[in-house]
Amino acid sequence: MKQKILTMLELQDAMNTKVNSDWRSAGYPWYRAIWTECAEMLDHYGWKWWKHQKPDMEQVHLEIVDIWHFALSDLLIRHDSMEDAMEAALAGLSRPAGGDDFRESIEQMAQETIRTQSADITLFAAMMGLGEMNFDHLFKTYVGKNVLNFFRQDHGYKEGSYIKIWNGREDNEYLAEILTELDPDSASFSEALYQRLEQVYPAG
User: Pfam families annotated for this entry (predicted)?
Assistant: First the structure.
């Protein structure tokens, strides 16, 4: 688990650096990104009593992963070393805090994030558990999304030349398929994933 957390922290640092080499000094409001993602997740799960709603758990899980991107960034900013950030993440994930209602756990996460302007990993862990997502699922989905984001950047996403629809299907769909083919416990998981994306990308 420690190694997987370190891997995610390293990938997050690399992605943030790709967007802005001086990202640690930029003063980005990571906490604001977290609580707005919480609101989006609540919509995907459903809370409106005046209409029929069915939880979209696939979207809920994607929102949890998006929140984790920003939480990792916050951890990296608030700790002097990658190792310290990893230990803080491990401690938080090992001690889920909160009630037993998923909607309320989302609200708790949002409220505490706004109050402290930082990511509370114990509340995140509780929210993740109530959202039916375990650590291995978080790791695999996070790495997949991170590698896809890198792939997009390397293939012209910022310039507008990236092809998002591959033979009639979105790149996210290909990613989901590839993730089922690879071993997330492999030390070369992220590299293998990038290579598989290269193989199926239609632009030559």
Answer: dUTPase_2
Host H or E run for residue 15:
helix 2-19
Question: The domain containing residue 60 runs over which residues?
Answer: 2-133
**The model's pTM:** 0.86
3-state helix, strand, coil in the chain (%, to 5): 70, 0, 30
Single out the residue in 106, 133, 160 at which a domain terminates: 133
Average the pLDDT over 121-134 and give the result: 96
Task: Report pLDDT for 167.
Answer: 87
Helices (H), 117-182: 121-130, 135-154, 171-181
How far, rounded to the nearest angstrom, does the alpha carbon of residue 137 sit from its chain's CA centroid? 11
Q: Where are the alpha helices (DSSP H) in 79-134?
A: 82-93, 102-116, 121-130
CA angle 27/44/1 to nearest 5° reads 60
pLDDT at residue number 168: 87
Domain match, 146 and 187 both: yes
Residues 95 and 75 in one domain: yes
Nearest-angstrom CA–CA distance, 161 and 175:
19
Average pLDDT, the chain: 92
